[in-house]
Structure formats: structure tokens, C-alpha cells
Design brief:
Shape of chain A: globular
Shape of chain B: globular
Number of strands of chain A: 11
Oligomer: heterodimer
Largest sheet of chain B: 6 strands, mixed
Number of helices of chain A: 0
């Protein structure tokens, strides 16, 4: 069974840093692009960042570019999201997602999410 | 990148059909046939139900169908069932690996 398990969410002060992790199992991790999607309280889904299977190519939404960094460890089947200079508007449930095999734009498996709250 | 525009809510009775629209621009919906739809029940993670504008992943009933015309994509749910009550979000490529979602539509089954 394919599983994604996020961790690392916390209550953090503005300007602080946090690293989210997503441990994966049940599929050939190194062949799949992975994406972080977030959902603010009462808001819609927002694409945050994607990384290809090798980790060589990374992509970011304008809202997080320069502050967030996505990476992966294919030996540990884990993808990370390093979040720096956090702002109140980064408060959200962060989902780790796996891409549909062979596709760049569709996420067919989602984790349950980890909550990040940015507040003083 | 601005979110795609979806109606805040739609409703329908069991057995009826409803259509949810998703309007973007020529830089996203209108420019690419990479539109997807996600269903999200309260407290749960989203589930992919449509990709490539009109394709359904394995296990998704054919009551769910997708289409696109110009800058607007649409999701139609026919034969409404109580379990279809959920939030539905569209998503489109915006060039390269960039993705843009809609604000989400709450479907109420009366």
C-alpha cells in the first residue's frame, strides 16, 4: 500500500524556520516527482513546491520562492521542505503528495498533512 | 499566479446532475490540457478524480466527467449521491512545473 507520512509541523514564531519531512513507502520512490501542497484555514489548496525523481530539478510558487527549499533523500524515501523566514500567511496544513506515474501535473496520493502555525 | 475562479458553492438533489466551473486564463487553463479535479471530504486529504481534462483514475465512477472550453474547465457529476457531498478543487498547469488551484467549490446534496 502506498503511504505518505508527514511530520515536522509546529507552532513557530514569525521569522522562524521549520523543516517538514515526508516518509514514503509502497512505491519506487526515486522514480516519482513529489509535491508539497498547502491549505490555509478555511482556504483553498495552494501548490507550494515540486521536485523531480532525481532531485536535480526543483520548482517553487512565487509566494515561497527564496524562503522555502525542497529536497529528497532517495535512500530514505523521504522528501523534505525547509521553510525559512516564516510568515503568518504560511500558516496551513501542509500535504505531501506523490505524482501520478508518468505525469508532471497530477497528484494521485496525498498524506494526511502536518500543521504549521506561524504566530507570536 | 492568481487562483483559478470557482463558484463558492453548488447544490443538487440526489439523482440530478451538477456542473462546477473553473475559470482561468490563457496562461493556465486555456493554454494547456493539463487540468485536474480533486474531491475533498471534510477532514480528509484531497483525492484525484479527473486528470488531463477528462480522464478518470482507476476506481473513479464514470458519473464524474470533465471538459474544457477556452479558459474554462468544467466538472460534471451526474446521478448525484449523498457521498458526493464534498469540496471540489480544480488545478491547472501554469507552465513548466507550476501549478495553480481553484479556490474550491462546496457541493451540497439536498
Amino acid at each position: 500500500e502506498v503511504q505518505l507520512l508527514e511530520s515536522g509541523g509546529a507552532l513557530i514564531q514569525p521569522g522562524g524556520s521549520l523543516r517538514l519531512s515526508c516518509a514514503s513507502s509502497g512505491f519506487t520512490f526515486k522514480t516519482r516527482s513529489m509535491t508539497w501542497v498547502r491549505q490555509g484555514p478555511g482556504k483553498g489548496l495552494e501548490w507550494v513546491s515540486s521536485i523531480d525523481g532525481s532531485g536535480d530539478s526543483t520548482y517553487y510558487a512565487d509566494s515561497v520562492k527564496g524562503r522555502f527549499s525542497i529536497s529528497r533523500d532517495n535512500y530514505k524515501s523521504t522528501v523534505y521542505l525547509q521553510m525559512n523566514s516564516l510568515r503568518a500567511e504560511d500558516t496551513a496544513l501542509y500535504y505531501c503528495t506523490k505524482h501520478l506515474p508518468g505525469y508532471k501535473y497530477y497528484m494521485d496520493v496525498w498524506g494526511k498533512g502536518t500543521t504549521v502555525t506561524v504566530s507570536s | 499566479q492568481s487562483p483559478l475562479t470557482q463558484p463558492h458553492s453548488v447544490s443538487g438533489s440526489p439523482g440530478q446532475s451538477v456542473t462546477i466551473s473553473c475559470t482561468g486564463t490563457s496562461s493556465d487553463v486555456g493554454g494547456y490540457n493539463y487540468v485536474s479535479w480533486y474531491q475533498q471530504h471534510p477532514g480528509e486529504a484531497p483525492k484525484l478524480i479527473i486528470y488531463d481534462v477528462h480522464k478518470r483514475p482507476s476506481g473513479v465512477p464514470d458519473r464524474f466527467s470533465g471538459s474544457k472550453s477556452g479558459n474554462t474547465a468544467s466538472l460534471t457529476i451526474s446521478g448525484l449521491q449523498a457521498d458526493d457531498e464534498a469540496d471540489y478543487s480544480c488545478c491547472s498547469s501554469a507552465g513548466g512545473y507550476m501549478l495553480v488551484f481553484g479556490g474550491g467549490t462546496k457541493l451540497t446534496v439536498l
